[in-house]
Amino acid sequence: MTEAAAAIAGDARPRLPRGVRLVHNEAQGGWVLLAPERVFKADAIAVEIVKRCTGEATFDAIVDDLASTYNAPRDRIATDVGALLRGLVDKRLMEL
Amino acid sequence: MATNGAGLPRPLGLLAELTHRCPLGCPYCSNPIALDPRGDELDAATWARVFKEAAALGVLQVHLSGGEPASRRDLVDIMRSARDAGLYTNLITSGIGVTPKLLGALADAGLDHVQVSIQDSEEKSADHIAGYEGAYARKRALAAQVVAMKIPLTINIVIHRANISRIEQQVALALEMGAARVEIAHVQYYGWGLKNRAALMPTREQVDAAVKAVDELRARHHGRIVIDAVVPDYHARFPKPCVGGWGRRSLNVTPAGRVLPCHAAESIPGLEFWSVKDHSLEEIWTSSPAFNAFRGTDFLPELCKSCERREVDFGGCRCQAFALTGDARATDPVCHLSPHHRLVEELAVVQEDRAYAYRRM
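ok -> structure tokens follow
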């Protein structure tokens, strides 16, 4: 987990590529990440992270924001966010 | 899987056949033999309502298809209404009729993804299969524009006896065209494909080589392009799970508004299909006789009901069971356990070099 987190630079500005969108659908019970011919359910934590990936905020800024919003240890947040983003990048659902 | 109040699963995808008009004549077209005439096509306002109802029902992705969707002059309005309903929009096109101006307008209105069909990696063969001189060149031009606009591109290639030996070149072409994904789809034998079956059927040797080629290409191009393969129909040991199970994951609206569990469902006689002109999509999904005809596994023969793959393939494809045995409730005879499997084996070795019966209105 720590390795995956370290793999994303602090000044990277993650964003959803064109063709990948986070949408809310009541009938499906919440948020989903949509890509060509693919659908991924997004849990509450993933939603808060992905919503902040606008291409403007840096990885460090996103982690700071989440740490202060949820009053949680910054190290742990950085690890979790890094792991999630790395997983999305590998599936071509996120750009750095 | 999310369910509604009645305990039914919620659909994820909607195939919107905006029109059956198409300049191409592919002999395996998934449209029915009896095509909906232009005068019967739903108007854009009705499509907008259907998309809203679809999103409320749980649908996440809409596939704007046809025929050729660009045959509709109001395509941009229709696409925008799908986006406004919150749906992910996928344009499935032959490429013919999608001008740079139209593509630009679609992109501005938020089109999410484009799928372009290619008939072969060799121009002459591709145009022959499509029954349209110049189709290949126009498709390549459109694909280049899609990539230039940074819209994700999928290339779809239906493979059959005439082009199955060039999968490597086809995948190379998809890469060259800038696709992030390529679908290698073995032809399926319904409607037009059934009519042309002997002219399309590959040999067993060709199918075995194709399966091997796809595996090798996946390993070679890992991380560069996603290769999705639709399994060869008659040469499989187990049947395909028809549209992920009848009335479970998706629905199809015809140009005239009839709602089908799959695009070939009208080939089964005696089913009662409801129209979006008379009912909401929710009513149709929940209560229409056609959707309830083959839901679950209760209707299947004992062979399937007692099979451990019961929830994997749901006894296979209903349209195929009917087309080959005359009984839509039978085990799909592609299954090697089916008492009718010999039929499939016999048909799979019938190869005739005859002219295609092109799909025409």
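The first helix of chain B runs from residue 44 to 57.
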